[in-house]
Specification:
With 142 residues, this protein is mainly alpha-helical. It folds into 2 domains: 60 residues, Orthogonal Bundle (434 Repressor (Amino-terminal Domain)), CATH 1.10.260.40; 60 residues, Orthogonal Bundle (434 Repressor (Amino-terminal Domain)), CATH 1.10.260. It starts with a helix and ends with a helix.
C-alpha cells in the first residue's frame, strides 16, 4: 500500500468520512478517490491540492514525504507559471540549468513557464528534491 493511500485512509477515518462523502465535499470523482485508496498511482495536481485543502494538511504529508501532520490553512495558490518564475529567482537557477540538472525537457519547462500545463505530481516530487524543499513550497501553499 502506498503512503498516500495509508495517509488518506487515516485522514478519512479521523474525519469519519467515507469515499462518496469525500468526493461530494471536494468535487473529486469518487472513482479517483477509490483508486487512490487502493494505492494505484498518484493523483493529478489539482486533486492532491483539493485533498490537502479539505483535510487542512500538507501535500507532503499526503504524499508520505513527512510523518508530521500539521494543520495547513488553505490559501489560494498562485498559477504554477508564476511559482516557477519565483523558484528560479529564489534558488538562482536558470531554466537551462533546471532542464540539464533534472532531465526535464526544454519543452516541458517552457510549457510550465508559459502557463500551458501544470506539472504532474511525479514532476513536483522531482522539483522538491532538486530544490531541497517541500512540495507545498513548490506550489506556493506555504
Amino acid at each position: 500500500m502506498s503512503k498516500l493511500s495509508e495517509n488518506l485512509k487515516d485522514l478519512m477515518a479521523e474525519a469519519e468520512i467515507n469515499a462518496p462523502a469525500l468526493a461530494q465535499a471536494t468535487g473529486i470523482d469518487s472513482s479517483t478517490i477509490l483508486t487512490l485508496l487502493r494505492g494505484d498511482g498518484l493523483p493529478y495536481l489539482d486533486t492532491l491540492v483539493k485533498l490537502a485543502d479539505h483535510f487542512k494538511c500538507a501535500t507532503d504529508y499526503l504524499l508520505g514525504l513527512t510523518d508530521l501532520l500539521t494543520e495547513v490553512q488553505p490559501i489560494e495558490r498562485p498559477p504554477f507559471s508564476e511559482r516557477l518564475t519565483f523558484l528560479l529567482q529564489h534558488f538562482k537557477v536558470t531554466k537551462y540549468k533546471l532542464e540539464k540538472e533534472t532531465g526535464f525537457s526544454e519543452k516541458t519547462v517552457n510549457r510550465w513557464h508559459n502557463g500551458k500545463t501544470q506539472p504532474t505530481v511525479e514532476s513536483l516530487l522531482r522539483l522538491a528534491a532538486y530544490f531541497h524543499c517541500s512540495v507545498d513550497f513548490i506550489l506556493g501553499r506555504v
